[in-house]
Amino acid sequence: MSLNKIYELSIFLIPLLISVILHEIAHGFVALKLGDNTAKRLGRLSLNPIVHIDLYMTILFPLMLILVHSPFIIGGAKPVPINPMYFKSPRKGMGIVALAGPLVNLFLAIISYILLKIIVVLNMFWDYYLFEIVSSFIIPYFQTAVVINVILMVFNLIPILPLDGGRVVNALLPRKFAFYYSKTEKYGFIILLLFVFSNCFSKIILPIMHFVLKLVF
Asked: What is the pLDDT confidence band of residue 73, given thresholds at 50, 70 and 90?
């Protein structure tokens, strides 16, 4: 593989790995603050990408979508183990833990965008050839980081269990409705697939992505 191909691949993989890993660590860290040390005890509060890899959702499922030429490629890391019984209010605690992941992605998207704009402005006003060369290699990473983190945030906030958005909705619903809503989790993967390949997904995701792409490119 040529150096150019490695660089192009790294533009996608490095921001993706950082974003997904910090998303999962955020879940475990907030759970720890709420009294559940399960993630910490099992070594999931780690920057090591290997501990976050799931055979099906990280490798096989995205590969299958690529092979069938799917217009959307979705996947995920191994879910961070959470034991809500350690929380004072298990349902609300799960909602807070779930929200931590998308909020981290929002934070990363904002930081990446700010750094991107700083570099662009410096390029305009700082007439320094070496800086221009270095920044031309760095800028694509920040552009990709913004896009990836916005996608991760929006996708995970879809109100379908077991996604983070589903956990948040479950925490906000009255107890009676939450009980029935939680029953949908066993069909969650099928519901999610139907949603992803429907017009609803395109109408929600594509306008957001067009806006983000115009913003960073």
From this structure: low
Helix/strand/coil percent split, the chain, to 5: 75, 0, 25
Integer Cα distance of 87 and 95 in angstroms:
11
Closest to 63 measured CA to CA, from 6, 54, 141:
54
Question: DSSP for 41-93?
Answer: HTT-S-S-GGGG--IIIIIIHHHHHHHTT-S-----PPPPP--GGGSSSHHHH
More confident residue, 138 or 203: 138
Q: Which residues of 107-126 are buried (b: 16+ CB within 10 A; e: fewer)?
A: ebbeebbebbeebeeeeeee
Question: Is 114:47 a contact under the CB 8 Å cutoff?
Answer: no
- Average pLDDT of the chain to the nearest whole number: 86
Apex CA 39: angle with CA 52 and CA 93, to 5°?
115
Rounded Cα gap, residues 94 and 31, in angstroms: 8
Whole-angstrom Cα Rg for the chain:
19
Domains of the chain, residue spans: 3-216
Checking phi first, is residue 70 left (phi over 0); if not, alpha (psi -120 to 50) or beta? beta
pTM confidence score: 0.88
Q: Are 161 and 167 in contact (CB under 8 A)?
A: yes
Residues 6+ apart with CB under 8 A from 182: 161, 170
Active site residues: 24
